[in-house]
Amino acid sequence: MAYVIAVLNQKGGAGKTTVATNLATAYARRGRRVLLADSDPQGTARNWRSAGPNSGDHGKAFPDVVGADTAEAVQTVTGPEVAAAFDVVVIDGPPGVSKGGPGEVTVAALKAADLVLIPVRPSGADLWATSDLAELVRARQDATGTPDAAFVVMQADSRTNVAKEIGGALEELGLPALDARCGFRVAYTKALGKGLAVEDVKPGGKAAGEIEAILDEIETRFHA
Ligand SMILES: Nc1ncnc2c1ncn2[C@@H]1O[C@H](COP(=O)(O)OP(=O)(O)O)[C@@H](O)[C@H]1O
Ligand SMILES: [Mg+2]
């Protein structure tokens, strides 16, 4: 059965596609069969893959990327046929809310997920914007025992202790944060624009190390 990771946050610019593309690629390079399901109608993850090299030329693995921007499509890409063909499905979540709460594609992804990752920038406005989603995740956990869930702090500035302060603010939202975080690094933006992983942009660099740390933490903490 494929392990389903949904990268969700209704707020645009939170870092969903950054996390989803880099995690999916890192899993693929660990030898997993990975499907990256792009549930953003803007198709950023699909554009990312189209801009990238083909795996044969590049010599390094990439995930398969497919569009899944309806609730039904999310169910299909996490359903039994796909689950049998892949080890990991990463869903790159859509922005936007409906009727004041997370939209139906976000809800479908949440229901299909083994693990929900919520990338969030360390600012009050960004945190407030995630409270509906955090509440929805906790309600589902209370009702069904799944999915696991964690915040991923994005664009953390190591020069200030904002990251520390935000730790407490995140706890108030009732979900844990990964110890592994992503700093504010140009490599993330470059990689997204070129259809690459941060590892390709700066091999062995800090951003690549951050992605590896996220993967390691997921594997030891949630998906042993
Ligand atoms: N850790 C980071 N450091 C620097 N830039 C980042 C980082 N994370 C995301 N970005 C940039 O922020 C923008 C929004 O990120 P993106 O992943 O597309 O967000 P979302 O998918 O949630 O809308 C992109 O231009 C991306 O390159
Ligand atoms: Mg996106």
Task: Note the topology.
Blueprint: E1 3-7, H1 16-29, E2 34-38, H2 44-51, H3 55-58, E3 64-67, H4 71-77, H5 80-85, E4 88-92, E5 97-98, E6 101-102, H6 104-112, E7 115-120, H7 124-129, H8 131-144, E8 148-153, H9 162-172, H10 186-194, H11 198-201, H12 206-221
Parallel strand pairs: 1-4, 1-7, 2-3, 2-4, 7-8
Antiparallel strand pairs: 5-6
The structure holds adenosine-5'-diphosphate and magnesium ion.
What does this protein structure show overall?
- The radius of gyration is 16 Å and the shape is globular.
- The strands form two sheets. The protein has a six-stranded parallel β-sheet, with helices on both faces. It has a two-stranded antiparallel ribbon with strand order 5-6.
- The chain has twelve helices and eight strands.
- The chain has a single domain (3-221), classed as 3-Layer(aba) Sandwich (Rossmann fold), CATH 3.40.50.
- It has 224 residues and is an alpha/beta fold.
- The longest helix is centred in the last third of the chain and has 16 residues, at 206-221.
- Helix 1 packs across helix 12 (206-221) and helix 4 (71-77) runs parallel beside helix 6 (104-112).
